[in-house]
Amino acid sequence: MTEARGSAGPHGETHTRHAPGTPCWVSLMVHGPAATQEFYGALFGWEFQPGPQQLGPYVRALLDGREVAGIGQLPPDRHLPIAWTPYLASNDADLTADTVRLCGGTVGVGPLDAGEAGRMAICSDPSGAVFGIWQGAEHRGTAITGVPGTPAWNELLTFESVNVAKFYETVFAYDEEPVVSADFDYVTLHVDGRPVAGIHGVGTALPRDRGPHWMTYFEVADTDGTVARVVDLGGHVLEPAHDSAHGRVATVADPEGARFSLIQNPR
């Protein structure tokens, strides 16, 4: 993580419409949604309300009444990795999905309407990392950022950044800012001059059981305290809390194995 959104202030930043290419939502599909809601409700203070059911049972997580993320139930016969998936904003989900295919990616689900909320697709890039496309209608996406319990950053962990960055740049018209370093492979993706996501090439350090994948960072008030809470709630620590240039960071997994990172922004 080399670029992170600055703090939105003590009351957060409320979003109305997300520019194309901006991560606008994160969603988690699990086998046991009730237990997963209990875990994240206790960890982040989320409450839940029903969402679109096009792909099965689904709820939206709320923080102070504003939508921050989604949790759905995987069909029993689908043995997919349990993972947080970022959705990237689009003005035309069908056109974006066509571009994904033309650029060597795969469209696994959709595009399809999610009720009146919007239109979506689930895709994978040429390296196999899964992401979503979201064309908002009634539901624009994450309604608040910049406060504990909200998504703070999304980062693609992959073998190398150069080729996969070209894919995302072509599909979403990102401007990219590579890190010029012989031993650190990182590209920051920009929309309208703002850093919105990162691509980190980690080579053989990529977990063999996961392959290339997107990682969501959630903002917390106290990384160490939240890591302890994760363990108390039945989760696991993958990378202990440590200081970085952008705050204190840790990587953890929930009881079903979904990986995510925690970041405490320096004030």
Automatic annotation (TrEMBL):
Q: Where is the VOC domain?
A: 22-136, 150-265
SUPFAM superfamilies according to UniProt: Glyoxalase/Bleomycin resistance protein/Dihydroxybiphenyl dioxygenase
Gene3D superfamilies for the chain: 2,3-Dihydroxybiphenyl 1,2-Dioxygenase, domain 1 (3.10.180.10)
Q: Which InterPro entries match?
A: Anthracycline_SecMetBiosynth (IPR052164), Glyas_Bleomycin-R_OHBP_Dase (IPR029068), Glyoxalase_6 (IPR041581), VOC_core (IPR037523)
A UniProt-annotated Pfam family: Glyoxalase_6
Residues annotated as region Disordered? 1-20
Q: What is this protein called?
A: VOC family protein
To which species is this protein native? Streptomyces muensis
